[in-house]
Design a protein that fits this description.
Ribosomal Protein L30, Chain: A, globular, five-stranded mixed sheet, alpha+beta, three-stranded antiparallel sheet, about 250 residues
């Protein structure tokens, strides 16, 4: 028996916009509704029986949310990303450098352009952080004080995804890994400021692209905290929803 997902048709909807509606649905509380929407942005339900999915769709319609019903088998992972190291605007497109290879991406070929942010703990980047037990053992052997391991720090991570062409080439952009030298004199000491400037430059000519609300808010300098999602998996799922919209694979 097939299971179904219920997705919102509006591409640039805020992740938590349906929170009040979903909190009134059986099985959800305010907190669980918000957690679901941050983890699965743009979806109102997953793995639903057909009758339950149709009932939820009808209720959502009355609440002002136009939805599409798709089989769960259609909710597939987006294309595997290629992480870009440099983006350089060139005429009617831009050059993307990734893994030593240079690819030209025409603006008119871009079908989906999104940005996202999520909070996560930083990954330890020192040997002591990664192997605290080893350092404790060494300290005991030499009679020294056991070194203190720094507590994990929660940080906000930003990213952007660009999908181009029928072959669905997907570029992943992370501000901490990008060379912003193409910005020239406008380059800022802040990677986030540079990231905004770069995304603004290359997204503006993408007239055919579907764009998400975070990208629009980020470029406009609007508050971003309400738009944060649960993590990279949620960003991938939002891409999946937008691809469903652009390819019209809804029932």
């Amino acid at each position: 028996m097939s299971l179904y997902a219920l997705a919102i048709k509006v591409p640039s909807i805020e992740p938590l916009a349906p929170a009040a509606f979903l909190a009134g649905v059986k099985g959800y509380s305010r907190d669980s509704a918000r957690a679901f929407l941050r983890a699965q942005p743009g979806f109102l339900g997953r793995n639903l029986q057909l009758e339950a999915a149709r009932e939820l769709a009808a209720a959502a319609g009355l609440a002002g949310f136009e939805t599409m019903l798709v089989e769960e088998t259609a909710v597939q992972a987006p294309p595997r990303p290629i992480e870009a190291e440099k983006i350089e605007p060139k005429g009617n497109g831009f050059n993307a450098t990734a893994g030593g290879a240079l690819t030209f991406i025409p603006y008119e070929s871009i079908t989906v352009f999104t940005a996202a942010a999520y909070d996560a703990f930083t990954v330890p980047d020192t040997i002591q952080d990664m192997n605290p037990g080893v350092f404790e053992k060494m300290a005991r052997l030499v009679g020294a004080e056991t070194p203190k391991v720094p507590a994990p720090v929660r940080e906000t991570f930003f990213r952007a995804d660009i999908i181009s062409g029928e072959e669905r080439l997907r570029l992943l952009l992370k501000p901490e890994n990008l060379d912003f030298s193409p910005l020239g004199p406008a380059r800022s000491p802040s990677s986030l400021v540079n990231f905004r400037a770069l995304l603004g430059t290359i997204s503006a000519p993408c007239f055919k692209a579907v764009k998400n609300e975070f990208l629009l808010a980020f470029l406009a300098g609007r508050p971003l905290t309400p738009l944060k999602i649960a993590g990279p998996e949620a960003a991938d799922l939002e891409l999946t929803r937008l691809l469903l919209l652009t390819t019209k694979r809804a029932d």
